[in-house]
Amino acid sequence: MTRLPDPAASRAVLIGTAAYQHLEQLPAVAANVRDLAGSLRDSLLWGLPEENCTVVPDPPDPSAMLDPVHRAGQEATDTLLVYFSGHGLRDAETADLYLALSGSRANTGYTAVAYEHLRVALRGSRARRRVLVLDCCFSGRAARTLSGDDGLAARTAVDGAYVLTASPRDRVALAPDGETHTAFTGELLDILRNGVEDGPKLIDLDTLYRVLDQRLRAKRRPLPQRSQENNIGRLPIVRNRFHAGGGSPAGPVLDSDVRTAMVVSGLGLARMLRAAGRQRDALPVLRLALRERPPGEDGTFAVQLELSELLADTGQHKEAIEVLEQAFHQNHRTFGPEAVLVCRRLAELLQEAGNHIQACEVLKHALDLTENGGAAPAPAVPGPLTPEAQPPNSWRPFNAWSSSA
């Protein structure tokens, strides 16, 4: 993957319980969520809009913790990131993982939030990728349920999910005295803020885990754990700040940077207009955002999908198919949830237009991508051909299909 998740189509929920009535206080947790929110919103790192990054301090009850996750899960269509920092508890009978609330008590799971409930909230999200970061004691239990190590995996797996935890399943996390942050989140923030010297231009989740493991191991601190589904570890999460010279800006603002900002802003504006029922006004905004895509960059999936959906809703099915054709030709060898979603949406439009055979071919290609991890042969030439130029029984350009029924 060569792009960061779309900030306009992504959400983050950062939960931190620092103040407790019956458990040890964790003042470092308040600094954790505050500074992590600042890093995720930093335009030099990810640039998540403030309204898309929700901070939940000291939730008093399960609904206060989980409602923001459910809400963000329904709003996000690209990536959902959920972070929890606080006490992790084990139930006295089952030893299952529970996330502590302000009024939680030790060895009483019913006074806290079961990890299972957070997992269900993630599983119900519309987001194509889900990232869960747990900085709490015994958090490795959450990673284990996704790793396939035991029978729990079958009923706890979350499609498209990456779980990163602060400690193994039977160890406590660490909040060192005199340090601003907990051990795990302190290292995490240092990586985000200062980058990785030998790392890629975009830091993906697997690189983040590798560097965290190296640094915590060197300090003899609890080691992080991870689990993933669908190779989501390749997902870039922030820009590598090291390549920008530490705290200095990355250099002059480039034309591509301006265009990228226009695309993100245009997509956000179009969604606001659609929500207000102003579809006619949203259409030109989306068309402009698509035209302003930085040259040389792969298709802007979020814009293309949004535009095709709006075109279909307004009865312009032929143009909707043409937009998805463009997305397919730009990314027909790409493996990932976005490419599969483009194929699925295109197949739906083709079927609605009566082109059932072509719809099946598109779905077969999506299946090949999934099974072969992106190594499936491209069923299309690099660029569209006119119907007359196609050999018999060949893969025709999608815009020809819309008129062939």
From TrEMBL:
Q: Which Gene3D superfamilies match?
A: 3.40.50.1460, Tetratricopeptide repeat domain
Source organism, top-level taxon: Bacteria
Annotated Pfam families: Peptidase_C14 (PF00656), TPR_4 (PF07721)
UniProt region (Disordered), positions on chain: 374-405
InterPro entries xref list: Caspase-like_dom_sf (IPR029030), Pept_C14_caspase (IPR011600), TPR-4 (IPR011717), TPR-like_helical_dom_sf (IPR011990)
Occurrences of domain Peptidase C14 caspase (ranges): 11-227
Could you tell me what this protein is called? Tetratricopeptide repeat protein
What species does this protein belong to? Answer: Streptomyces lycii
